[in-house]
Design goal:
globular, 12 strands, alpha/beta, 8 helices, five-stranded mixed sheet, seven-stranded mixed sheet, Metallo-beta-lactamase, Chain A, single chain
């Protein structure tokens, strides 16, 4: 009888025990305005060292509850975010916005629904479609592979509510306005403007001093999204990776891409190949060489930019 009771307890407790470790190490939340908090994850790719946590989960405490933006990369990361939310308020999470399909931003949904099962999950319609068509399994496996199995136990909890460009969600006295695109960082991107507080959550369309991985997107789309972000003239910009700040780091990204694309076009016109372009462009961009992921992504960006220029 005791054995049956133990087995039953393990079955019903399994969500709380999922994975080789229950929760990633704690990262503090920074209050960036009244009722708005961000956990700034370390910059880099998912790894054993960072336990898969390397994005910027954020939340807004409204009159009625909490709105979360990008709860993290795994159930383990999501549980850390849940614990940090509970340190700031006793209100429940009512809504989650997932900014795009890359799993480091949304696989923490599972932990949110463990804690608040009635929360509404919102995303770009193409993100929802891709996740339902196999991107969920791809990202779960990738996170596990890159962290040596640390994220095992994570399940894909896919958003069900679609967000359209220009749509406004009125939640607890706050207005969350959607700025979406189909050709930027991942082709499934939302930027979320908190209108009253003049805060823009950019997702990975804008990063703070990090060389962007653009394998799933387009330079044209990201540059357009960067201009759109600047045009909103927000007081605070919360990037997908890197520290929250004012418009200056958004302007830095615009300048970086402006130099890279103009040099690729010039040298492509001269008949140069991507490997011939790299040392020249690296020198032109030397002011940015301390940015995160410089070594990993600069060459890739040049190769992708050549392909994009060929299609112009």
């Amino acid at each position: 009888m005791r054995l049956i009771t133990l087995i039953t307890a393990l079955v019903f407790c399994s969500p709380a025990l999922a994975g080789p470790s229950d929760v990633v190490r704690t990262y503090p939340a920074q209050k960036i305005s009244a009722g708005t908090y961000v956990i700034h994850g370390p910059q880099g790719v998912p790894s054993k060292a960072n336990q898969s946590f390397m994005n910027n989960p954020a939340w807004v405490v409204t009159q009625d509850g909490v709105v979360v933006i990008d709860p993290g990369s795994s159930v383990q990361a999501g549980r850390m975010v849940v614990a940090q939310i509970r340190k700031t308020t006793g209100k429940p999470v009512t809504h989650v916005f997932d900014t795009h399909v890359h799993g480091d931003h949304w696989l923490g949904n599972q932990a949110i629904l463990e804690a608040w099962p009635k929360a509404t999950l919102v995303a770009h319609p193409d993100m929802i479609k891709l996740a339902r068509n196999g991107a969920d399994a791809f990202w779960i496996k990738l996170m596990s592979d890159m962290t040596g199995g640390y994220t095992d136990g994570t399940r894909a909890v896919i958003p069900t509510v679609e967000a359209a460009d220009g749509q406004e969600f009125r939640i607890g006295g706050k207005t969350f306005r959607i700025h979406s695109s189909t050709d930027a960082h991942s082709r499934t991107d939302l930027m979320i403007e908190m209108v009253e507080d003049q805060i823009l959550f950019t997702g990975d369309n804008v990063l703070n001093h990090q060389v962007m991985n653009l394998r799933d997107g387009t330079f044209k789309g990201v540059m357009k999204a960067t201009d759109r972000a600047l045009g909103l003239n927000a007081k605070r910009y919360v990037p997908g990776h890197g520290k929250t700040g004012d418009r200056r780091f958004v302007e830095d990204q615009k300048a970086y891409f402006g130099i890279l694309m103009s040099e690729v076009r010039r040298m492509y016109g001269e008949g140069k190949s991507d490997y011939e372009m790299k040392p020249v462009i690296a020198d032109k961009l030397k002011a940015y060489q301390d940015w995160a992921e410089w070594d990993a992504n600069l060459g890739q960006q040049i190769s992708l930019a050549v392909l994009e220029v060929e299609q112009e």
